[in-house]
Design goal:
The protein is mostly helical and 470 residues long. 72% of the residues lie in helices and 0% in strands.
């Protein structure tokens, strides 16, 4: 592989003048995006007008990150160009090729089958009819517990580290980022924002400012495998979720390096390793599986309590706002948190390429709900709230991609808490960088939604009908 690469692509590039390599690369990527986005025929609401808006939205996100960059002169455009190119190629493979659709559909079906095994455990503890009730408490949370236990077992065997390192080496080599950044970015979609930082625990205290920003951005830009199976359990399209997670890896690296470029010497430059964690290593497979079950129970408990409190608090806020709205004669529609954040996020929904058929405000409300509450609340509303049952297939697909990330106000506390616990001496730096990383992570997720809006042709094939519409 190395021999073929060094004697084909490397030799070809060596003939290109040095001052033309970066502009030439950018031109190639832009050409690929334009041809890939506009060459296919129009279909239903996936018109070239809507695709053009999605492309414009992608350009606005990239320009806004460059315009607000900490040091525009220090931006390494190689990382940005390769990141956007890899993200686009992954989307092209999933949304435009039969092989890509089949592969990600197969992975999605495997995840659904995994939920069935968790149902067997639930039926044993309760009754055979209980998993068929469809309650969140007895269908989603047991799947989360089982999945986390399985992940811990795979981690003990070394399977997970091997898989993550292969991903990390590719991004380390292709995007020229540090080893620590590559490992965290590759691990975030599989084990979550807190756990991925634990993989580089020995290096956290010595990370540069840009690396800390990237570590947090990667966590905000995607979701963890434990909650991914939960979203699939409530009916969210698995292919879109899984492909969004993969697309967010290069996107978070590109956007973070655009927003906060590297200006220091990194400790893990030139190497990509996952250090052994002997302190928390299980004694055997049974010990690892039991530890995973306990960790899964804690994660499920956190999801349960967080959702209960957030939904209750939103209900309280909506009650107060509706009362105040009636006093101000705002009755149709009633004044709610969703309405307010919907209008705030209205431009974002437009830039993603959501059709102008009445869906703009609804998708904007979902985006706002995700940012102020969390993506779990937003996905639950997307699948079960009758107000979103009539979303067009294109709008539903774009919303699915746009919500697939941990970028919300509550996650700020998680990121700051985890990194400050790992490296107390860096707590001040973490706190200063957290908001910037949150914005970069949210926009990284939105780039995936923009690209999905640019590429999708058969929207109806990529979403599962919502419970609200059934």
């Amino acid at each position: 592989m190395h021999y073929a690469w060094n004697n084909t692509a490397v030799r070809l590039v060596s003939f290109v003048p040095e001052n033309m390599k970066m502009p030439g690369s950018a031109l190639i990527v832009i050409s690929v995006i334009l041809i890939g986005g506009f060459a296919s025929p129009e279909s239903r609401d996936n018109t070239r007008d809507n695709r053009a808006i999605s492309l414009f939205g992608l350009a606005v996100i990239i320009f806004s990150m460059w315009a607000t960059s900490r040091d525009r002169k220090a931006v390494k455009w190689h990382t940005v160009i390769v990141g956007m190119f890899v993200q686009f190629i992954v989307a092209l493979f999933v949304l435009r090729s039969g092989a890509g659709y089949d592969i990600f559909s197969f992975i999605s079906e495997l995840a659904r089958d995994l939920l069935g095994f968790a149902d067997q455990g639930t039926a044993f503890l309760t009754a055979a009819t209980v998993p068929k009730l469809g309650w969140f408490l007895v269908t989603v949370l047991p799947a989360v517990i089982f999945f986390v236990a399985l992940v811990q077992l795979l981690y003990y065997w070394g399977t997970l580290q091997w898989f993550i390192q292969k991903f990390a080496v590719f991004f380390f080599w292709s995007m020229r980022v540090s080893g620590a950044e590559a490992v965290v970015a590759a691990a975030s979609p599989f084990i979550g924002q807190g756990e991925s930082a634990m993989l580089i625990k020995p290096f956290v205290a010595h990370l540069t400012q840009a690396e800390l920003h990237q570590v947090m951005c990667s966590g905000f830009a995607t979701i963890a495998g434990s909650v991914l199976v939960a979203y699939i359990a409530i009916g969210v399209n698995g292919q879109a979720l899984i492909s969004s997670c993969v697309m967010s890896i290069p996107a978070s690296l590109a956007i973070s390096k655009l927003r906060y470029p590297e200006t220091e010497e990194t400790l893990t430059t030139g190497r990509c390793v996952i250090p052994d964690d002997d302190e928390h290593r299980a004694a055997n497979s049974l010990h690892a599986f039991a530890n995973g079950a306990w960790l899964g129970l804690k994660i499920a408990g956190m999801i349960l309590s967080t959702l209960l409190c957030i939904i209750a608090f939103l209900g309280l806020a909506n009650g107060l706002l509706t009362w105040w709205g009636r006093y101000l004669n705002i009755n149709d529609p009633p004044l709610t948190v969703e309405l307010i954040v919907g209008y705030i996020c209205y431009p974002l929904a437009f830039l993603l390429g959501v059709p102008r058929n009445g869906d703009l405000l609804k998708v904007a409300q979902l985006l706002g709900t995700k940012l102020i509450a969390n993506e779990f609340v937003a996905y639950t509303a997307l699948q079960t709230d009758p107000a979103y049952a009539d979303l067009s297939p294109r709008s539903r697909l774009i919303a699915t991609y746009a919500l697939c990330g941990f970028a919300n106000i509550g996650s700020l506390g998680t990121q700051i808490g985890v990194l400050s616990q790992i490296a107390p001496s860096r707590s001040g730096d973490v706190s200063r960088l957290a908001v910037s990383a949150l914005i970069a992570g949210a926009l990284s997720t939105l780039t995936s939604a923009s690209i999905a809006g640019l590429l999708v042709t058969d929207q109806a094939a990529y979403f599962t009908p919502s419970a609200a519409s059934s």
